[in-house]
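Fold this complex.
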Amino acid sequence: MSLKVAVLPNSTPDLDAALKSADATVTSLDDARAVIWTGSDQTGFPRELPANIEWVQLKSAGVRPWIASGCVDSRRTWTSAAGAYSDHVAEHAVALLLGCLRQFTLHARANIWLRDHTWATVRSLRGRTVAIVGAGSIGRAMIPLLNAHGARVIAINRSGCEVEGAVTTVTSRNLNDALAAADDAVLAGASTDETHRLIGPAQLAALGSDPRGGVPGVLVNIARGDLVDTAALTDALRGGTVGGAGLDVFDSEPLSAGDPLWSMDNVLITPHIATPKSSMLESFAAFVEENLRRFAAGRELMAEIDLNRSY
Amino acid sequence: MSLKVAVLPNSTPDLDAALKSADATVTSLDDARAVIWTGSDQTGFPRELPANIEWVQLKSAGVRPWIASGCVDSRRTWTSAAGAYSDHVAEHAVALLLGCLRQFTLHARANIWLRDHTWATVRSLRGRTVAIVGAGSIGRAMIPLLNAHGARVIAINRSGCEVEGAVTTVTSRNLNDALAAADDAVLAGASTDETHRLIGPAQLAALGSDPRGGVPGVLVNIARGDLVDTAALTDALRGGTVGGAGLDVFDSEPLSAGDPLWSMDNVLITPHIATPKSSMLESFAAFVEENLRRFAAGRELMAEIDLNRSY
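Structure:
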């Protein structure tokens, strides 16, 4: 029998195809066993879900605001889309890293031939060591990319359990040593109480120590803005202890028009577009299809939200 | 016995280490069996080489200007550094492709939060099909990178002989069909009489046909400027038949200050820096070391110049 699902606030062609392929039927909230919520945040989310709803699938990968809002209850299963977009975000992280090493912002703004200035200071990613701070699904998706590019990876996670493809995995207690050992760093961790302002002056100084060939390393953030002390990062970029930054996420978004980061030629800013819209629609549909099949078969769902861990 | 080598016009620490490691001794031109030429062009190259010079190693990957200058004779073996820098150039090609798909030029110039404009039009490389025009050492070095990024590769070469890692290989006779089948294209071929202006209006129209999701593809050139009809490319970028271009090489370098390409927000220009200086010094030294070992052992050298083929 077809699984009855409510799709709110609206569906997409990709999602319609996924539902059909998973043999699910779209119905009303009162008649459904599951809700697929396609909104990017809580705006318009039903205040009270009827008891017949056993499972809610959210579109967001991060669930901190969902839990903070009180929407997520313990009367049913909630799943996020954690992991669904990791490949796209990992790609963007590599793009930002390459773009900083090869000084794309400076070149894009110069409008003149800067070879005499930049040939000696641009860098290849090949041969560099990159610290991935928070080796969850995005971090793990980055490793084969970085390895293909000839970079070594130091993975940093809470447990210190070995991450495949990394030359070393260290626990977050050794964060500063890992940053000192790396050329560049990518922030890929979830936003939690523990990771709030994880990268401050001491961490930036560690990253900037012992620069390779006199050119300090690059910091990339595709995770969440609050992982970084932005004032400290701005100082480090100005002072040259950090060579460049590729930033897709910010403490407060949109990044305010007057922010000094906008005017720095060693900063590559993108407006939270690591997962392009077209990729998000496609990837979310594929993710939902797999979870619908699992739900119908009574199997464990992907990305179940653990209310005790807020991610 | 140590191999006697002249290093002209000057050496580098990387090269000194390579010579030592290969058990070669630096000596004068009249006393040497081989010349390592570290100049980036023919400026200062000896007019007449003494008969004792059996082999000349050049630092350039492209040899067209060397052959045109008449320096290269048939009285000894000449080797270029073809292939020595391929990994770095391949990396830059991927960086430019990602940078165009994710609209880095527009974002770098905007200085404001463009999410509403660009989230719907940026693209992931994952899932795209990339035509590599000229699958020599740079093209082949790109394939594992593109595959790691989840892109499919159509390789285009003269022979049509299958290239490892490509989903299809076609001969250059089918160039236009291959461009039409691909989302994006990277020019990675050598500059020869056959490849001069290989990409003209018809090829750009083919690349622009059937755009994926309404967003036309990207052209990347990290090979030589004369592979492209620049006026036609400029028109195609203006008209939107080509979605973006990542260009590291130009017909005439430096690209002139008034060129319209400078002002286009869908064009990412770098000033012929695909192989960063530091990478070039390192990679050239490693290449020379291997060729010195081969020469000393009487084995075939890498990248011997074929005077009949001009690359």
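Chain A touches chain B through 53 residues (CB under 8 Å).
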